[in-house]
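seq/struct pair 1
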Amino acid sequence: MILKSSAFGEGDSIPSKFTCDGENVNPLFEIKGVPREAKSLVLIVDDPDATNGKTWNHWLVWNIDPHTQYLSEDSLPQGGVEGVTSFGSVRYGGPCPPHESSAHHYQFKLYALDAEIKLPRGSSKEEVLTAMRSHVIGETVLMGMYKRKG
């Protein structure tokens, strides 16, 4: 599988528009190569560089239609159900590292599953990961960087 964005390439800087310093909206994504047997997709956006070694969750979306080719900017994907982020909200929360920190790595992880996840909106990342267990049939990661100015 391939996950691409016209906003940034693998390892490139994420434009501030998609962060807490800008419009704080999700970028456009293109999806290719989803296995034919996939029944749903899961997108998890996180920051493994967050403080105290604890990964910060920026967006959790599951039950995305496996035929989806594009995730539009500033929108919930077709069929998608959102989980709670580390910000305590149930929506996309863009990169927002502390001003004094070095650039953080942001992982946009896409998974193809052979089933849909039976969880309600607002579920946690741990609940999603548990529900995904033994159902992942494909995965890919797009990594972007972000460092705040000032």
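seq/struct pair 2
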Amino acid sequence: MNGIYRRGRGRAVFIGPLSALVLAACSPGGFSAFGENDAPQGLYAPGVDQRAEAVDGIEVGHRLMAAGQFELAIKSFNRAALVHGLNGEILSALGSANLGLGRLGQAETLLRRAVKEDAAEPEVWNNLGVVLMERGKTAEAEQIFRRAYALDDGESDAIRDNLRLALAKTEKSVMTEVNEDNYKLVRRGSGDYLIRPTP
């Protein structure tokens, strides 16, 4: 191994290649943080663009929900609530994320609050219906899905499918025996989330 030996007070001191490099950097003639015209060179991390537009916390939360990252989604929705207030959309999103984590009581509470805030939004009613189905409150869930379907004018496939499954369960039809208990949470805009009841 190549290195530099120095004697000091009767003892030999070994300075390896790395140590020599560090010492060279510390010397006045060593590496400089600045190049020509005193412009910084690659020693510093790039700064944050303060002029860039931040991504909305609600959209980030929905992306996390779609990826199954429900805890992170809750944090994102909570941050969004600081900006937008605890409105119906955020309450619905928080309820849906709690449902994804299996926290059915919290999910129901949040979604009931959401329908009071946003009574005209079919997505919110649908998501409350999903929670009620998960909690075994099938008769109430059916009524909630009917309301969501009516508000949506029958345009959402997810809401229609949820209503069909709730009706099948209520009527104890053959469809219930086939394992089709897959309910869909929906969000405003595009996209829905599939909820599979735990065995």
